[in-house]
Write a structure and sequence with these properties.
Layout (H helix, E strand, L loop, with lengths): L1 H6 L8 H20 L36 E2 L5 H4 L12 H6 L13 H14 L3 H14 L1 H10 L1 H8 L3 H7 L1 H4 L6 E4 L6 H6 L8 E5 L16 H14 L6 E7 L5 H4 L14 H18 L4 E4 L4 H12 L15 E4 H20 L12 E4 L3 H16 L4 H5 L2 E5 L2 E2 L10 H4 L12 H8 L3 E4 L9 H9 L5 E4 L11 H7 L5 E4 L6 E2 L5 E2 L2 E2 L6 H11 L6 H12 L4 H5 L10 H18 L14 H7 L9 E2 L9
Parallel strand pairs: 1-16, 2-4, 3-4, 3-5, 5-6, 7-8, 7-10, 10-11, 11-12, 12-15
Antiparallel strand pairs: 8-9, 13-14
Helix pairs in contact: 5-6, 5-7, 6-7, 6-9, 7-12, 12-23, 16-17, 16-24, 20-21, 23-26, 24-26, 26-27
Length: 643
């Protein structure tokens, strides 16, 4: 007994605290037994619960796939969240969120869900008397809650796209100073020369992917609007977010204010720009270069879209920053930027898409483009840009440049561009000058002499395509292409109704601004297509953002145009449409982005994707698209690692 006692393990004696806890546990157990209901049937007579055996089939386990809404980490708290349009959810904040984020008492007590908020916004939009009032109402929504704004825009894009962009944005720009309430975008000016890096550094967001910049010199067909041109980048980037899936914190609208030659603006007491004439020449280009150098340093992978620059500088700016001139021996050269000019390249590529789609609707191949004769009314940056894109496509289809140039006649206010006027033409215009047309031809004379298959209007002259011109097109074409592409609607060269009427319903029609459906005498309803750049530029921006492209090449633009041309459904073509339905814009943007990145991979111009990734490109890009919906917000106090 002594040995056994000494070899037995000595158990530790319980402490006074442990004894107390055991007594409390025993008392709680007795209380639970006393309060438990008595069983009416003896336990021994109750059926036993089935026990699992090795022979039983295991209960299937469905693996958790994870949340598609990762939290957004923010540094704000309390009223600062409500005042930040990127974070604000308004009355949709849940009660736990209100407590966590310091919002209790700062919002009305009733929680109104997201779908009801969207319903309220649309009711507010539809109660406004005019489109410009709708534009202002939506701007106020965007200023307070960007997620709500972009979700409403996306779900109602066919109705709202003409309100937030063309044609209404033209009026919004004209009234910009009068309706100005709060700054949106980056305003830099000639007063910031030498301080552009500081101005760009003040932009609050740190992960900018897409920038739209204008100098306000040629806003739509309205001319020089100076600093009022900021409405264009703002409207454009709204479509980048909704249609292209770029998150709103990754976009930056910019106006470079170099003055204005518009005397009405210089006398406008509400004008927000600098009161001086436009600077030009070397001083102007130095300012542009300093701004883009600041962008190069802070946002080196950003996609930069030039918007509404006048034709006398647009081509030079695009060429200089697009091309890689580091190996040419030129002084001051730098690595190219990923730049894009929507007026030159975007309008041209989306017009090219419409022409190829129209040929498909006629039962022809897109390769028949090289056989078409094209007359363009308007020799500005948009007109020359369209001609250049189509010329490039014809060369891709096998023509030499000299052969392809014979398919073009470009007319300005002085008649067809001719080599006799070469000294008066810009370099890009002189490329399309001809010497085989009679002197003194007006637009009708050019149509009669040249007999084009395709008539494009980029003149910004409303009603330019008179009845005799349209009827002459129908005389020598079974299906004449009539494309009045000028914006806004008041600048359209011909209406859809007149184009169909004067061609007896044979016209293949597309316009820059929207027109209502037209009922033909035989009762058939034709739905005019809008040759809208939004079918193209959001997808190009998405591709550039997702693939971190080094630059955007002509080959990428051609592939983007082919993607748009193939997008319309057969039912859409039966209605006379040659562009996709607007509600399908997100899918179209994804198709365009995929085509652009796939071509970039071939050219080794993507910093993200490489050869062999082609099979996963679409799904990968789709996974990077922004969807406007509320996500959980996480503050520093919720996440210690943020401190």
């Amino acid at each position: 007994p002594q040995a056994l006692s000494s070899s037995a393990p000595q158990l530790p004696q319980p402490s006074r605290h442990s004894v107390t806890m055991m007594r409390l546990s025993s008392m709680a157990s007795l209380t639970l037994r006393a309060s438990a209901p008595r069983l009416s049937t003896p336990l021994a007579l109750q059926p036993r619960r089935a026990m699992a055996t090795d022979d039983d089939e295991p209960t299937p386990i469905h693996p958790w796939k994870g949340s598609k809404l990762p939290p957004l980490r923010i540094r704000s708290r309390g009223s600062a969240i409500i005042q930040n349009c990127l974070y604000n959810k308004g009355t949709a904040f849940s009660y736990p969120e209100r407590d966590r984020l310091g919002l209790r008492g700062l919002l009305p007590p009733r929680r109104i869900p997201f779908n009801v908020q969207k319903q309220k916004v649309m009711e507010g939009v539809r109660k406004q008397p005019t489109d410009i009032d709708r534009n202002v109402y939506l701007a106020s929504v965007c200023d307070s809650n960007e997620t709500l704004f972009h979700s409403v825009l996306l779900e109602n894009i066919e109705e709202l796209a003409p309100v937030v962009y063309t044609p209404t944005v033209g009026v919004a720009c004209q009234q910009f100073g009068y309706r100005f309430r709060r700054p949106r975008g980056l305003f830099v000016s000639a007063l910031d020369k030498g301080h552009m890096h500081a101005a760009v550094a003040n932009w609050p967001q740190t992960d900018v992917h897409v920038i739209v910049v204008t100098d306000g010199s040629r806003i739509l067909g309205l001319g020089d609007l100076g600093a009022y041109g900021m409405g264009i980048p703002i409207g454009k980037l709204a479509l980048y977010c909704a249609a292209g899936g770029i998150a709103p914190h990754r976009v930056m609208p910019v106006t470079i204010d170099v003055g204005t030659d518009n005397q009405e603006l210089l006398k406008d007491p509400f004008y927000v720009g600098i009161l001086q004439k436009r600077i030009r020449g070397q001083q102007y280009f130095e300012l542009i270069d300093e701004f883009l150098d600041a962008i190069r340093h802070r946002f080196p992978n950003a996609f930069i879209q030039f918007e509404d620059f006048s034709s006398d500088v647009a081509y030079d700016i695009l060429r200089h920053y697009r091309e890689d001139t580091r190996d040419t021996g030129m002084t001051g050269t730098k690595e190219p930027l990923c730049v894009f000019n929507d007026d030159i390249q975007g309008t041209g590529a989306v017009t090219l898409a419409g022409l190829m789609s129209g040929l498909v609707s006629m039962g022809k191949s897109t390769e028949c483009l090289k056989d078409q004769r094209i007359l363009i009314a308007g020799a500005g940056s948009a007109g020359i840009g369209v001609a250049t894109q189509i010329l490039d496509a014809m060369e891709r289809q096998g023509l030499s440049e000299s052969e392809a140039l014979k398919n073009f006649v470009i007319v300005d206010k002085d008649g067809p561009l001719s080599k006799k006027r070469s000294s008066q033409l810009a370099r890009q215009q002189a490329r399309f000058a001809r010497d085989d047309l009679p002197d003194g031809l007006d637009l009708l004379g050019a149509v009669k002499h040249f007999k084009p298959n395709i008539l494009l209007g980029l003149s910004a002259v409303g009603g330019l395509f008179k009845e005799e011109i349209i009827r002459e097109m129908a005389v020598h074409n079974e299906r004449p292409f009539i494309f009045p592409l000028s914006n806004p609607t008041s600048k359209a060269e011909v209406t859809a109704e007149n184009a169909y009427k004067w061609t007896d319903g044979k016209a293949i029609f597309a316009s820059g601004s929207p027109f209502d459906p037209v009922t033909l005498p035989n009762g058939k309803v034709m739905t005019p297509s809008q040759c809208n750049n939004m079918f193209l530029f959001p997808g190009i921006g998405l591709g550039a953002s997702a693939g971190k492209l080094v630059r955007v090449t002509d080959s990428m633009l051609y592939e983007a145009a082919v993607a748009v041309a193939n997008a319309p459904t057969e039912s859409s073509r039966a209605k006379g449409m040659i562009y996709p339905a607007v509600p399908d814009i997100r899918d179209v943007s994804l198709q365009v982005a995929t085509a652009v990145v796939m071509q970039a991979v071939k050219e080794k111009l993507s910093r993200v994707y490489k050869e062999g990734d082609e099979d996963v490109l679409r799904s990968s890009i789709a996974g990077k698209m922004y969807t406007p919906t509320y996500v959980p917000l996480v503050t520093r106090s919720d996440h210690p690692l943020m401190n």
